[in-house]
Structures are given as structure tokens and as C-alpha cells.
Write a structure and sequence with these properties.
Layout lengths: L15 E7 L2 E10 L5 E9 L2 H17 L10 H12 L6 H19 L9 H13 L4 H20 L26 H11 L5 H10 L3 H4 L7 E2 L4 E4 L2 E4 L5 E4 L8 E4 L2 H21 L20 H15 L9 H12 L4 H8 L4 H8 L4 H15 L5
Antiparallel strand pairs: 1-2, 2-3, 4-5, 5-8, 6-7
Length: 390
Amino acid sequence: MTDETDKKKPEPRRPGGKTKRGEYKWLLRIYRGYDAGGKRIYYSEVFHGGSKEADNRLDELRNNHRSGKPLRFQPKTFSDFFEEWIDQADDGERREETIRVYRRLATRHLLPAFGKFSLTDITDVAVKRFYKTLRNEKYAPATINLLHVILTSIFRFAEDADLVLRNPMRKVKGPKIGKPRPVAMSGEQVQAYLSAASARPEVFMFHLAYYLGARPCEYLGLKWTDLDKKERLITIQRSLKWRCAGNWYIEPPKTEKGMRVIPLTGEIVKGLETHRRRQLEMRMKAGSTWTETGFVFTAEDGEPLNLDRARYVHKLILSDAGLPKTFKLKVSRHSCASALLKAGVHPKVVSDRLGHAKISTTLDIYTAIEEAQQRDASERLGDMFGIGKK
């Protein structure tokens, strides 16, 4: 007869653990107790991520169970939550253009990558892998950084709403982005550009663009009421924007400095008067199809000139002038600033003309002084201090 004490005791059941179910996929289980019939109860969930992250999630589940916190949050996919986030982001404080860019980038990149996953299933490993894929596909760091900004805001919002315990973005760093290096035309290139533009009806618009140093959305947003011919002044106080649907709207400047008054030369005033007469001729030709909008630069029907059309004409002018296609429409702004700084105009004056909120912004962007200027500076110091002279 076998002694009961000699019988092999059954091994105690494990309180749970992780089981690999595929690459970056784990089944996590924790023991929760017994039901009314004395049967063991386990909580299980599928986790997507690395082994270490799975261990961290397992510890988190156990800690939540001990402290009485819910083990599973209300299931919500990234796609559904994105719509909630974008609705709260469109609170009237962010510019309409910013919201449009957010939605466009999310539709193209974030929703295909994360849309079907629950918020709690998205890990820092998955986000880092997503960034690596974008880098391999040669996306610009600025694009990846903007996606990083969007993801960070989304998960911060989810964290505040108690939809996630672990914010994966706390372990993810965005790409490093260098300071912008604006490209400007040389004086000879500007002359070649404006000479080629003289054959087109939009010629004065480009003359004014290089003179003002304004953003394209700012000079396209100019109205005749902004012009003071007597005092020879023009006020920049709005930006013209276009929606994907094709309709336009206006926005005020981003900062107080964005609204600015710029003195005009007599030649520029004469150019505006000539352009005004040409516009009146267009109005007479259009007849009843003309829409009076009050903008300085318009299409044949009186509607404000579309930014896409301005870009198209700009490319034609570059081709006619034999200039590189890499010059963007905004090159007029950079060329104006560069020319003023080279001429010795005080950076504060240049900053005010450009509408920068701080002079440091102007200096940070436009301090890429050409080698010739550095050489000239060295020569002047040599002359002043008598260095190297016998």
C-alpha cells in the first residue's frame, strides 16, 4: 500500500505569463482568482511588440490587478480616435491650413500604418519601426517630424482621456532637423528672372514680390484698400489661402509683427497704377461674369489669383530665363532678404519687412553669409588693424 505522503504533489499552476504567437506578437495571461464554481480565472490579451515590452506590459497588468485598476481599457481603434482628436484640434485656435495638413498626412501615412490597431496595442517599437520605414523610403526629416508631432499630440490626448496607461511616444524621439537654409537668387539671376517675366501679364506681381519680400499668400492677399498712394505705403494684413475643394478664404497674420506697413517708391506706385488700369480693362472685357473681390491680383473673372497658377507661371519664367527649376515661388522673399542684408541694411529693418516675430528668426535663417562676404569682412579687419601690413 502506497503512503499518500509518497505521492508526487502536483506542480502549482503558474500565475500566468507570455507565450510567443509570432514575430512581435505575444499572448499575455495573468491569474485573477476563482469563479463561483472554483474554476481558475485568467485574463488574456494579445500584445504586439518586442519581448521586453511584452514583459513590461505583463508587469503592468499584474500591478493593475493588485491595485484594482481595470485590465482592459475601452477598445478604441487609432482610426476612430484620430477623428475625435482632429475634431478637438480644430478648436479655432489652430490655423485651417494646419488642420488640413494634419488630416492629409494622417490619411496618407498614419491611418494605413496604425488605423486598424487598438490604441493600447500601439507600442514605441511599432512607432520606431514606422519611422525607419519612412526613412528607408527617403521621406524628408521634416515630414517625419511633423508625423511625430501629430502622434505625440494624439497619444497625449488619449492619455488625458485615460484610454491608455502607457504613452508609447514617451520613448520615441523625433528626427533631428537642421535650421532652414533658404535659397536666394543672385542679383544677376533676379534680373534675368524679371526680364523673362516682362513678357507675361503677371510681370508686376513678381516685381512687387521681390520688392516687398512678402510670402506668396501675403502678396496674393493684397487688396486695393491696402494701398495709400498719397503716402506711398502698402499694408500687409492678410493671407490668401485655398482649400482642396478650390474655394478661397483669408486668414490674419500669425503674429502682430505679421501685419506691417511697407513704404513704396514712386516707381512701384506707378507700377500699381498701370496694373490697376489693366485690371479695369479685364473687368470691362469680362462684363457680367466679373466678380468684384477687391484683390490687387486677380484672374480674368475677378476672383483672386490662385496660388497654383502663380506657381505654374513662376516655373514658365524660370524656364524662359534659363534658371534652375529648384527655385521655389518663395525665392522672391529669400532673395529680397538676402539682398538687403548684403547691402548692409540693419537686420531689425529686414526682420520688420519680412514680418518675423523676432529678429532672432531673421538672423537664424539668413546668417548663411556667402564666402565672398566673409572674405570682404576679413579684408576690412586687416585694413582697420593693419594686420599683415609692413
